[in-house]
Amino acid sequence: MCGIVGFIGNEQAAPILLEGLSRLEYRGYDSAGVAICDGGAGTLSVRKAKGRLQVLSDLIHGGADLPGTVGVGHTRWATHGAPSDVNSHPQVSENGRVAVVHNGIIENYAELRSFLESKGVSFVSQTDTEVIAQLIEYFYTGDLLSAVDQALHRMEGAYALGIVCADAPDQIIAVRKDNPLILGWGKGCNFIASDVTAILKHTRDVSYMNDGDLAVLTREGIQCYDHLLRPIEKEVVHVDWEVDAAEKGGYEHFMFKEIMEQPEALRRCLSPRIKDGEIVFEGLSLTPDYLRSLRRIFIVACGSSYHVGVVGKYHLEKLTRIPVEVALGSEFRYMDPIVDDKTLVIVLSQSGETLDTMAALREAKRLGAHVLSIVNVVGSSIARDSDEVLYTWAGPEIAVATTKAYTTQLALLALLAVWFGKTLGTVDEADYQAALAGFRELPEKMEQVLSCRDGIQYFASKYFNHSSIFFIGRNLDYALGLEGSLKLKEISYIHSEAYASGELKHGTISLIEEGTLVMALGTCDRLFQKTVSNVVEVKARGADVLALTTERHQEEMAHNANGVMTIPDICDLLLPSLGVVPLQLFAYYVALMRGCDIDKPRNLAKSVTVE
Ligand code: F6R
What we know:
- The chain is α/β, with parallel strands linked by helices and 611 residues long.
- 36% of the residues lie in helices and 23% in strands.
- It is built from 19 helices and 27 strands.
- The strands form 5 sheets. It has an 8-stranded antiparallel sheet with strand order 3-2-4-1-10-9-11-15, covered by helices on one side. The chain has a 7-stranded antiparallel sheet with strand order 5-6-7-8-12-13-14.
- Helix 3 crosses helix 4.
- The longest helix is centred in the last third of the chain and has 23 residues, at 429-451.
- It is globular, with a radius of gyration of 25 Å.
- The model has no long low-confidence stretch (mean pLDDT 94).
- The structure holds fructose -6-phosphate (F6R).
- Fructose -6-phosphate (F6R) binds at residues 302-305, 349-351, 354, 357, 401-402, 486, 490, 608.
């Protein structure tokens, strides 16, 4: 939610900021803006525009219009105040001296605004961010850091901030609380950014800010402070992501590129963890005694990551016989969860920054649970706040709709479940070896699925005009349907729902009529016949059925459904990992045929850092 970038150096700042923002547009894209300090001229210029970054870029001619070598930029996902020029960031103080870019929400902004208005300050926007700029200005008496510090003491909520001031044209102040912000160390120049992809072209040396940290950036260096304004040293981490990984590389859309990258991402995720016929989780401290002591496992996540959790519950319960509960990050802390030191909480997050998931993690720790997270973004807040972390190593995921992050989470959680089972003795050697064989062949089988994408494109061309689609399936296929349905609705805007097939008769079947599209998921061998019965039921009521099944059941399904998509046979554990690929491709092609903005679907942002 919202992307921030800041640069201080000797080159013109505006083009660098625009380029950085183009990498962050996935975080929000309803408006964008920059504030540039020109020390020579003594000016602070702010330009902002509603709409995509391109609108801003055109307005300032790719940045050429704005001289100055210090600045901050922002791409917005609106919270307070509709997308508009005036509500875009940077927000500036009344006299134009202080400019602020912000990711997050100031919860007491109304109170602060009334206070400032009572002191005669006038506001022009509906944003909570303008309050920050005005508050800093209110406290400013010549020392920007002190003014920022005083303002922070009055602000409640979550924020990552980039602040520039006309009177202090040779510095940027950065602040972080509950929203991501990193510092980039260059040569004669320094950076701030919401994530590393925005500055990767310029530096790979970054420091992760902690909650409560402040930083003052100059051309020469970065000085960090804790929340009591005591100077602190920050570790500098070298990032080894390739710049290319965050580029489209000839593909029309990031989503398609990331779908195609999945076999490779799985190899990166799995091969270092399967060595000499054994699963190896280096650095994980969970002992057999600890696993035996567990009374319960909680999986906590949001969106697609939550869907991984639903699959994970089936796996973990089957393989360990430990009760597993899956909770939405946004619900967990309000449900009075039964969690104690005999509970393992597994937190799933691609970005590692999802605010609700983060809040759940903190609640779990407060209740005494041990927290293990599965995260893609290295050094992210969730990774750093967990007791232990397993990285998925999927590489940067830019498309808003997740694909390779989902499949790597899914595979890693399945691998963890097998390892737990083996450690506890609830998985025998034969099943263990069969599972390992499945993991080894997964990337190649996924390549086979991807190579058959023309067939899926054909089905998309047949059905892209439908206005409503139902996904049905049982057990793992139900969990798969949740993800297939979300993928479709988020990028194609077709109404879609996923149901456990057995639930259909308890109400939803009344919606099935002539021509309704039902996506029947029948990959689980032991439940296949039941799925066929459900296919027959909905067809009898006029539904058009597109089915997904494995090679061994392809023929039988073809007799019953109107169309069949097929995946290779693989062990049960990995059926959802293969099964999701045709559903991702189906959603992608449908969205393409409907002319949707696939990488940046309306109203969405990739990293949801507000509650
Ligand atoms: C959907 C999607 C979202 C995320 C959700 C959680 O395609 O990407 O549903 O899965 O916002 O995000 P993370 O995994 O970053 O916590």
